[in-house]
From TrEMBL:
SUPFAM superfamilies: HAD-like. This is Pyrimidine 5'-nucleotidase. Transmembrane segments: none annotated.
Length: 247
């Protein structure tokens, strides 16, 4: 990473899944299966309906209500966050499941300014993915879901309070920050706090996959750029050409 940074250089806050790599290909389906198995076990232990339809409904409704299924399981079933995250991110061969843009490390290097990973994924998983695709050294800081806490409770994206606390703690001027994401609701929250926003669309899942994993965002082809999105691009590789619109 380039240590000689101007005070006017942007500060990039990069999402991980479906932004820096194609999580919809294999990882999200595997996470959904893992989540369902864990949720079914929790519901069964509490004497609640735990058939496939009940489990799917539980997972999706919590994601829509809280922005993360984890919060619903913590708030309504008192599960331990670490237990849920560990079970949801069990993979037989994670590296074989990862797909990403060719030359991504070179593309990131071209972008001026400091880069921070800001992901609703857990620390161990994020670390492993970045190591495998060779991006670890490009990020000055990692902020996984475990670090997104307000008053001791996990508050993941799109929590505006969490984002506000993060900016204050890291002394990040909102006007210099750019959130790069595939999920528009997270971009909207960031824009309301004064951040610039870049929407990455190449890994967005089709309608069927979105029903299984609602966190994968909206289908890009039929969706216009929302007013709170400064730049809509297919890939991270196109960000450099859009720098003038992000300053």
């Amino acid at each position: 990473m380039n240590d000689k940074m101007s005070r006017n250089d942007p500060i990039w806050l990069f999402d991980l899944d479906n932004t820096l790599h194609d999580a919809s290909h294999a990882i999200f389906p595997a996470i959904n299966l893992n989540m369902n198995a864990y949720i079914a076990q929790v519901l069964r232990e509490r004497g609640l309906p735990c058939d496939a339809d009940a489990v799917n409904a539980e997972r999706i409704s919590y994601w829509r209500r809280y922005g993360a299924t984890l919060l619903g399981m913590v708030n309504h079933h008192q599960v331990k966050p670490d237990d849920f995250l560990r079970e949801a991110h069990r993979f037989d061969n994670l590296t074989a499941m990862i797909r990403t843009e060719r030359g991504l490390a070179r593309l990131l290097h071209k972008l001026p300014g400091r880069k921070i990973l800001l992901t609703n994924a857990p620390r161990r998983y994020a670390h492993d993915v970045l190591r495998h695709i060779g991006l670890h050294r490009h990020f000055a800081r990692h902020v996984p879901i475990e670090a997104m806490r307000v008053h001791g409770r996990i508050r993941p994206k799109p929590s505006r309070l969490m984002l506000r606390r993060l900016l204050a703690r890291e002394k990040l001027p909102a006007a210099r920050c750019i959130l790069v994401e595939d999920t528009v609701v997270n971009l909207k929250a960031a824009r309301e706090l004064g951040l610039r926003t870049a929407w990455i669309t190449q890994y967005l899942a089709p309608e069927v996959a979105r029903h299984v994993h609602p966190g994968s965002g909206a289908t890009a082809a039929a969706t216009k750029r929302p007013i709170y999105v400064d730049v809509k691009v297919k890939s991270v590789g196109q960000l450099f050409r859009q720098l003038h619109r992000l300053r």
